[in-house]
Amino acid sequence: MDVVILAGGFGTRLRSFVSDVPKPMAPVAGKPFLEILLASLSNKGITRAVLSLGHMADVVAQHFGSKFQGIDLVYAIETQPLGTGGAIRVALKSCVQQVALVINGDTFLELDVSALETQWNQTGRPFIVGIEVDDTTRFGRLVLDGQRVVGFAEKKAGGSGVINSGHYLLPTDIFDGFDRPDPFSFEIDFLMPNVQNLDFEVFRTNGLFIDIGVPEDFLRAQTIFT
Predict the structure, then answer these.
(1) Buried b vs exposed e over 95-129: b needs ≥16 C-beta within 10 Å?
(2) Helices then strands (H, E): number in the chain?
(3) In this predicted model, what pLDDT tens digit does every residue of 196-210 receive, in sequence order?
(4) Among residues 1, 13, 33, which one has the least CA distance to residue 108?
(5) Fewest Cβ atoms nearer than 10 Å: which of 102, 146, 189, 222?
(6) Coil/strand/helix, residue 48
């Protein structure tokens, strides 16, 4: 499968730590975080990735070039902010497979890509990668009916539950017939209104999950990836 990496954010919450590079290039354990992410994907057998870039895109493109650790890199660069939905829609046009794993460039998740692909081959349905956590307050919670995702609980709803990791397995034609202009939010404007109609399922994982866009997790990552 292709991988789409959303790496165009401004990194506002990290400005006190990092201001001279885009958020996915923030130094973690002595190297750009995006290097850690791509190396992990390479170890999982991924050979092609589309990097969706915006803010300081040239910094990323000049650092990585067209290939990194066996992964062919393609760049989808925003000339103006498109929102997460617009960025994904543009990036999917650069994919060559029928399905793409969409991930955030500031988030690391230990994920069994081959198992996810196997489930796709069995069902042909899009997936939200979910993680069981003790407190969903920060993230919100997936509302599930068996394996199907039927809704989203508000972030203020606490307690244990399965959260949306921000990782998705999407058919590359998922936006066909969706004519909303850019910019738009993938989660709010597309996913929430359409999750049941599109038969999204949850793929559960218990692997390491860390979002360096949050200052406390950025600091924690310095020791995790040493």
Answers:
(1) beeebbbbbbbbbbbebebeebeeebeeeeebbbb
(2) 6, 14
(3) 899 999 999 998 999
(4) 33
(5) 146
(6) strand
155-212 pLDDT per residue, tens: 777 788 999 999 999 999 999 999 899 999 999 999 999 998 999 999 999 989 999 9
Nearest-Å Rg of the Cα atoms of the chain is 17
Amino acid residing at 174: I
Nearest Cα to Cα of residue 192 among 133, 150, 144: 150
Q: Are 11 and 26 in contact (CB under 8 A)?
A: yes
Q: Is the dihedral of CA 110, 99, 76, 62 positive or negative?
A: positive
For every residue of 56-68, which 3-state class applies, written as one string? CHHHHHHHHCCEE
**Amino acid making up residue 45:** G
CA separation for the pair 148, 135 (Å, rounded):
21
pLDDT band, residue 139 (cuts 50/70/90): confident
Q: Which residues of 188-225 are buried (b: 16+ CB within 10 A; e: fewer)?
A: ebbbeeebeeeebbbbebeeebbbbbbeebbeebeeeb
Measured from the Cβ of residue 146, the count of other Cβ atoms closer than 10 Å reads 8
Average model confidence (pLDDT) across the chain: 92
Write out the H or E segment, with its range, that includes residue 42.
Answer: helix 33-43
